[in-house]
Design brief:
single chain; 198 residues; mainly beta; seven-stranded parallel sheet
């Protein structure tokens, strides 16, 4: 999807489970979209894989998830304004050069099961490079059951606070894991999204 304006972008099926019982699209790109005005719940929702790059999400404040991103993917150079949070769940993310202004910032979810039985996978092995946002590692709602904490998160060249909750092995380092690629950070000024973005 390119160069368009939407009320929201949804990639995936209607299931809420973070496992193979609800397969969805993979290896897709969502880029250069402006998502505004009608965003009341979420701007971009993806489940597994894919690249979410250089989008601008302008929400309506509390309760709006600007981007919810599943596992084994990346999002880079996105700008999110006036939202509640950007939520990451599922393993093996690369999160680079995003500018996020929201109440909770970026939230890396623990693996948990809600009272309705919906399971969310932890954001294991997430690599955060050069983002401008507050980060909460290991978010879990009151009353939910913790299945597994966030593990093996690496954060570097980061601007913003980091709050550690249900987590283990979270590090701030300058070198990535040997089996992960850490591209050069994307440098963004406040208010910028990415090259040629709307």
């Amino acid at each position: 999807m390119e160069a368009a304006q939407f009320m929201h972008v949804y990639i995936g099926d209607t299931g809420g489970f973070g496992d193979t019982t609800t397969p969805s699209f993979a290896n897709f790109r969502v880029e250069y979209n402006r998502i505004s005005d009608g965003v009341r719940r979420r701007g971009i929702y993806t489940k597994r894989g894919g690249q979410v790059e250089f989008n601008h999400v302008l929400g309506r404040g509390p309760g709006v998830t600007g981007i919810r991103h599943g596992g084994r993917g990346a999002f880079s150079g996105n700008r999110c304004d006036n939202i509640d949070s950007v939520i990451v769940n599922g393993p093996d993310h690369q999160i680079r050069g995003n500018w996020v202004r929201s109440r909770r910032g970026m939230v890396l979810e623990s693996e948990r099961r809600t009272s309705s039985g919906i399971r969310y996978n932890a954001a294991h092995r997430a690599l955060l490079v050069g983002n401008d946002a507050n980060v909460t590692v290991g978010y879990i709602k009151s009353g939910d059951t913790l299945v597994a904490p966030v593990d093996g998160v690496q954060i570097y060249n980061h601007v913003g606070s980091v709050v550690l909750r249900q987590q283990t092995n979270t590090t701030w380092v300058q070198e990535p894991w040997p089996d992960m690629t850490a591209p050069a950070p994307i440098t963004l000024q406040p208010g910028q999204v990415g090259p040629d973005a709307p």
